[in-house]
Amino acid sequence: MQYLASPKNNSIKELKKLATARGRRRQGRYLLEGEHLVEEALQNHAEIQQLYVTTKFLQHDPKHLVKQLFDQTTEISEAVAQELTATVHPQGIFAVLTLPQVTLPSELHGKWLLLERIQDPGNLGTMIRTADAAGLQGVIISPDSADVWQSKVQRAMQGSQFHLPIITAELAPMIRQLKQEANLTILGTLVDAQAQDYQNYQAPADWALIMGNEAGGLTEATAQLTDQNLYIPLRGQAESLNVAIAAGILMYSL
Amino acid sequence: MQYLASPKNNSIKELKKLATARGRRRQGRYLLEGEHLVEEALQNHAEIQQLYVTTKFLQHDPKHLVKQLFDQTTEISEAVAQELTATVHPQGIFAVLTLPQVTLPSELHGKWLLLERIQDPGNLGTMIRTADAAGLQGVIISPDSADVWQSKVQRAMQGSQFHLPIITAELAPMIRQLKQEANLTILGTLVDAQAQDYQNYQAPADWALIMGNEAGGLTEATAQLTDQNLYIPLRGQAESLNVAIAAGILMYSL
């Protein structure tokens, strides 16, 4: 097993570039950090190119992750781990994965979550995790949203990228395809005159729910493509709900 | 109006100490940042001791916040704002507020949210904001949770501290009081043999819902005080829901 001690090593410098969306796009891969997420990747047969573990992690690896990825493993120093980590207390395990190229499945059906211009990585990751928990078919994210493959999104989505397709694409053509090919009802979350309290809405079996930007909501162009808009009543004095909370309430009730 | 240019000024040094829970406790006050939150504080007649605004903010104050707080206002330099801010791009407005001493109202009724050992400030603030939106009576937080008066919690709760009582106290005596004085049904979120799917549960009019730590859930001592435990079914492959999402789904459905 190779041992890398210096954070100035060229391969470490390349890995550090995976901290940006540009670096990930250029290299076609992303970095996954932490024991639990690497375990999820393994269990779901994700394509793990390399594994980097500290000497300390090597000595205590209760889930035998290194054994399963022995040929791809490089031992690193604590200094290298500190260089690669996005956390304050790194667990000492990092995997390099192929950036998935996901497209719509050929047989479209079920329930979908569509996200437009979501800016907060925590909100984005949490909504994907909730879509997974609620049994949705997949998530489609507009390209002007936060990048899915950054560490904060990964921490919030807790491995859900291995459970359901996550597609980054312009929403308008996707919405048309979901309507035409699968006859999905497109649900928006814009408050207009026709908007309905979600508690009184009888949802069809198949739908796509669109959640918009934290401050601005849906764009007008996207709002025009919805079949029905829903709202969540505010009973107290709060002006609005956090977008991930609203998405959670809607995905679970519809 | 006084002008403070140097971040090394003694009063600025004291304000900086409000970034820690210890500093806030010692000084009995906390710092609120941003135009929207200061406006919320004003609208809700919170006790604003001082206001600090940059020269740039003074020149463009569309909501006339400074006018309403003129006697308490100090003009500060951008350098001071950079020293005080918890954000990357400060808006140039900071208010110093009295740390509220909130106790249970004498007439207990309605719906309450109880939080035990919540560690993530974003989760804590979002749950308080959702409790506000859902029309709950108040929130009680165990002392070993994240501190409510830190900036990350304030950004997530969006002024909800001005809308409903937020009480930091040991949960066990509070739960006993809510049961004995108000006859509230105590709902937990522990998965035990008697736990019920929340969708099949007929909630009474008055209840207290307890949400536990992100990783560990409720402590055993607290779990023993619940009248009914509820769970949210996981239909996909996700192992769990984010605690704030789970709280949102439950508060809105019960």
TrEMBL record, chains A, B:
Similarity field: Belongs to the class IV-like SAM-binding methyltransferase superfamily. RNA methyltransferase TrmH family.
Cellular-component GO terms for this entry: cytoplasm
Name this polypeptide is given: RNA methyltransferase
InterPro entries with a match to the protein in the record: Alpha/beta_knot_MTases, MRM3-like_sub_bind, Ribosomal_eL30-like_sf, rRNA_Methyltransferase, SpoU_MeTrfase, SpoU_subst-bd, tRNA_m1G_MTases_N
Residue ranges occupied by any RNA 2-O ribose methyltransferase substrate binding domain in the UniProt entry: 31-103
SMART domains assigned: SpoU_sub_bind (SM00967)
Organism: Bombilactobacillus apium
Single GO MF descriptor: RNA methyltransferase activity
Family annotation (Pfam families): MRM3-like_sub_bind (PF22435), SpoU_methylase (PF00588)
Keyword Transferase: yes
Domain of life of the source: Bacteria
Keyword S-adenosyl-L-methionine among record annotations: no
One GO BP: RNA processing
Keyword vocabulary terms for this entry: Methyltransferase, Transferase
